TrEMBL record, chains A, D:
SMART domains from the UniProt entry: CoA_trans
Keyword line: Transferase
Pfam family, one: CoA_trans
Alphabetical list of SUPFAM superfamilies matching this protein: NagB/RpiA/CoA transferase-like
Chain coiled-coil ranges: none
Source species, domain of life: Bacteria
Keyword Transferase applies: yes
Entry GO MF terms: transferase activity
Lineage of origin: Bacteria, Pseudomonadati, Pseudomonadota, Alphaproteobacteria, Hyphomicrobiales
Protein name: CoA transferase subunit A
UniProt KW Membrane keyword: no
From TrEMBL, chains B, C:
Lineage of producing organism: Bacteria, Pseudomonadati, Pseudomonadota, Alphaproteobacteria, Hyphomicrobiales
Protein name (Swiss-Prot/TrEMBL): 3-oxoadipate--succinyl-CoA transferase subunit B
Organism: Rhodoplanes tepidamans
Family matches, as Gene3D superfamilies: Glutaconate Coenzyme A-transferase
Keyword field: Transferase
Matching SUPFAM superfamilies: NagB/RpiA/CoA transferase-like (SSF100950)
Length: 322, 260, 260, 322
């Protein structure tokens, strides 16, 4: 992120005021949405680990050859490897970074970080959440009671402020508000204006949407505004935060989308195997075959395979069978 | 994989750790559990003796019941929400720790030291690490804000005099250093390994062996530890894993995803 | 109730205020509206010329469409949520003001002064009031954080030199006092009454008459005001309420709950 | 509230730690639940104005002759009059206090406040919400950008702290966390453990539940835990915050309960008429007839009248007819 650690309030206000926040349709393609991200932007990614990762959008940004992004996320999985290896981003701000506990430590992350090719700035999971929350609330910091006393706080000393409670005198840590330039979020359904309804695990998506300067929304399906209005208490992201709505079935594959499909373990195992023997060659091969190679997202899904997708979908729907 | 055979039953080190760790829980507690052994141990306790135990997951889940054979790959997938009482944003489930609703944090560990500090961030210096580990996740929050149980393999390279990096604070430099440095609540309570159950001296906060698993000697524990361990005045021996416990663990993890 | 008859149509003071206030809105804006006249005015604008206008209610509602004849008794009942885009906690809808998503705050007023400060808390001193009024509600938040339109009856006892108590800050003591005292954004933009439309001088922040309603003179406005009003260089006259506007207002509030 | 303005952290932690937070049944009667409130407690009331007010519980506390409560609520309506007039509470902390805009200023509130018989401490609506939110998050204050510059902040000078952002140097106001002794909340449905699901407008109920030392929940109906578990993402209040679950149909009458019944306007008009001519005599008459008089809550509802209740219910369900 260029500029100061915390944006001053009047800048934040001007950024939002400058946007057209009227009730207007924003449906576009992945390629068009990719044009809304500029090189060097701070991009926040919704979902967590293997869940509701906006994979199709990240995939599209890599194909559009965007570079120099700073990326933040609660917990980073395989998408972090692809971001580093493709040059899309050189800094990831997150609480955890590896494919997933069952696959061991990411060798691609290790290569980039240990060789000084890229940065992984570590914050506690709750601090990440509170940074987005402060950003979404329009306040410049949030007081927190973790990251104190440990080395996690120590290596972030330039970015946090020890403080005393003005009422109790207690020692607290102020973590800085995080207001990303762009948020990438994937949801189960949204209308053409960007009103989004999330099922199941929400992670930090709502706070991220409120904190960002603008939201790019990918959605399993676009529903009518009438359908949204029938259950307004299920809407989680208000349309005026959103700049793009892209309908992308299986848009978080090979990760899961709650109630729609489980992670596509065959793909994840394949990626882990590829990068286990040769991290850099393996991730390059994966990028060539699965990101740069396919004609479009449907082409990518064809590579994953119909039967695999159907299995993941069957497992995903199980949550509603009880 | 070390196999013990103290009774008629054979079990893996991971199964032993899960069973011994699960027994440390109390009915009615609220347990913030990591994936893997902690999840298995807490589910085991829930099934065997603690029906009113509530499990929390970092992904934003209160009171789920894991379906046997469908263990989640992390605490952030839908498998974690099966038959849950409540699903909420991850920041808010972490805030339950800060508000004081959680009795025990329960996680695995890569490296631990004499004062129960855990490292899951860096081997070597942080600015030029030999190995960049995955990082804290919620570990720092959990261990900063509640009492902790850690379950891990007992190896000399994991039990070190001083961790390279304090990711999850235990008792920091011992004595009252944790409180002095701004953490007035929580702290490392128990470390459960495949050899023993350890606690921490109430005054100095040094690690202390409380109980040995069947067939294990104190010397064996010390030999696998990179610092001098305290020995409890009355060192006890744990009851071997029972057939019911082993059967349940294997029902939960038939593919041995976490208990191989 | 004063009745004006500048064209063929007869209307009440409240109807006039609602129509004139609604015309100040712009399509695509996000308007934080109070119940009563503000709600009617915003709904009118939405129906007549601003289909992309979004109304927010303090109760936690984004983008509702009020059903004619079912006006809510406050912004905190289910009638406010009819065909809404989103319902959210009230704290979070107020935080939209702080985050900067709201273009205009739109409320009624009991007492206003030269600098557009509103009082809805105390008549007389706060520690021993002659009348304890209902209080701020969200009024202080709205007027501290966004541009404001106030709709009210034009009476000398309501337009006072200095309000007894600043519940909702306007330009405070004028000039740059609002910014100096810690409110860098927002401020009183327009005051709409049954006599005129007023703004505030860009430098001194004193109230200034911008437009007179049909048949009203500047002197009439001044006579009903407790302080000396500025007069815009080019004082205009508003277009009379149109039949379509009046018909819509009466369709929305057939029982004249808010427009009697 | 006795004690300091903001409870110190270790006290807060001890209070929660002392409670039995296991998954246990808590179903009881209104009379039993009233025993969980002590004279002098700080009691927070959920809902807002005429919505989801936990009226049956307040009614029960008045009948139990509790006294000296400090009561807080986002916006206070007729229940505030009854609290003052009955002696249940002598201090109300709120952003607004009167029956409702269409009925004018409450003469009962005016009588008590202007005569110095009771206090109405005014905070901005957002500040009320953020005080509960800070309390629910386990932090001692929240920074806010309103209540600055105006008299609303000035008369609360002993209870707020001007502060500068440790990052940007901006001027902010710190409002103190509010951790009530008891929260009274009324919901559409809950299970016997206290897992509560709210429909429609939520107001500040979730933050209040998290901030309070304990929650007394009244609910239109008690459903099975299985039903709650079928849609865990609709649960809004977790069971472990709750100490009592009381099934009370029409438990917020004469106020509304979203999707169940609209306000009972006939009753509200009758109350307004009674207190318009003689505020103190009128509210006393109302208390005698409608609070102290009935044998039980069903007796109160009988006074309201079956046809009136059915009309309110028909109107309440309309929200789901579209």
């Amino acid at each position: 992120m260029s500029g100061p650690l915390v944006k001053d309030y009047e800048t934040l206000r001007r950024e939002i005021a400058a946007r057209d926040r009227g009730l207007r349709e924003k449906v576009m393609s992945l390629d068009e949405a990719a044009q809304l991200v500029a090189d060097g932007d701070h991009v926040a990614i919704g979902g967590c680990t293997l869940s509701r990762t906006p994979m199709a959008m990240i995939w599209s940004l890599i194909r559009a050859r965007r570079t120099g992004l700073t990326v933040s996320r609660s917990i980073t999985s395989t998408e972090g490897d692809l971001i580093f290896a493709s040059g899309l981003g050189r800094k990831i701000v997150s609480s955890w970074f590896s494919q997933g506990i069952v696959w061991g430590i990411s060798k691609v992350m290790r290569h980039h970080v240990e060789k000084g090719l890229a940065e992984f700035d570590e914050w506690s999971h709750m601090a990440m959440g509170l940074r987005y929350r402060a950003g979404g609330m329009g306040i410049p910091f949030m007081p927190v009671r973790s990251m104190i006393g440990s080395d996690v706080g120590r290596i972030r000393a330039d970015e946090v402020r020890p403080m005393r409670c003005p009422f109790t005198g207690e020692e607290l840590l102020a973590v800085p508000a995080l207001n990303p330039d762009v948020a990438l979020l994937h949801v189960q359904r949204a209308d053409a204006y960007g009103n989004a309804q999330l099922d199941g695990l929400q992670f930090m998506d709502i706070d991220i949407a409120m904190a960002a300067k603008k939201v790019i929304l990918t959605t399993e399906r676009i529903v009518s505004n009438d359908q949204i209005r029938r259950a307004p208490d299920h809407t989680r992201i208000p349309f005026f935060t959103v700049e793009a709505v892209v309908e992308v079935p299986y848009g978080s594959a090979p990760h899961e989308c709650y109630g729609q499909y489980e992670p596509i373990f065959a793909q994840l195992d394949r990626y882990a195997a590829l990068t286990a023997k040769d991290p850099i060659g393996g991730v390059k091969q994966y990028l060539d075959e699965m990101v740069y190679g396919p004609k479009d997202w449907a082409g990518y899904l064809a590579e994953v395979g119909l039967e695999t997708l159907l299995t993941a979908s069957r497992r995903g729907r199980v949550i509603y069978n009880d | 994989m070390t196999e013990h055979a103290p009774t008629s039953t054979v079990y893996t080190a991971s199964e032993l750790i899960a069973i011994m760790a699960g027994r440390l829980l109390t009915d009615g507690q609220i347990v913030f559990a990591g994936v893997g052994i902690p999840l298995l141990a807490a589910t085991l306790a829930q099934r065997v003796f603690a029906p009113k135990l509530t499990i929390l997951f970092e992904g934003g889940v209160i009171g789920p019941f894991i379906k046997p054979g469908e263990l989640p790959p992390s605490t952030n997938e839908q498998r974690c929400t099966r038959r849950a009482n409540m699903v909420l944003p991850s920041t808010d489930v972490l805030l339950l720790l800060q508000r004081g609703y959680v009795d025990v944090g329960f996680m695995g560990g890569a490296q631990i030291d004499r004062y129960g500090n855990l490292n899951s961030s860096f081997i070597g210096p942080a600015d030029k690490p030999a190995i960049r580990l995955p990082g804290t996740g919620g570990g720092n929050d959990i261990s900063s804000l509640t009492d902790m149980i850690v379950a891990m393999k007992h190896e000399k390279r994991r039990f070190v005099e001083k961790v390279d990096f304090v990711t999850s604070p235990g008792w920091l430099d011992g004595d009252d250093s944790r409180r002095r440095r701004g953490l007035p609540t929580g702290g490392m309570w128990r470390v459960v390994t495949d050899l023993a159950v350890m606690g921490f001296d109430a005054q100095t906060r040094e690690m202390e062996v409380l109980a040995l698993h069947p067939g294990v000697t104190f010397e064996q524990v010390q030999d696998n530890t990179g610092f001098t361990l305290r020995r409890a005045r009355e060192l006890s021996v744990t009851t071997p894993p029972q057939a019911e416990e082993l059967a349940l663990i294997r029902e939960l993890d038939p593919g041995r995803l976490y208990t191989a």
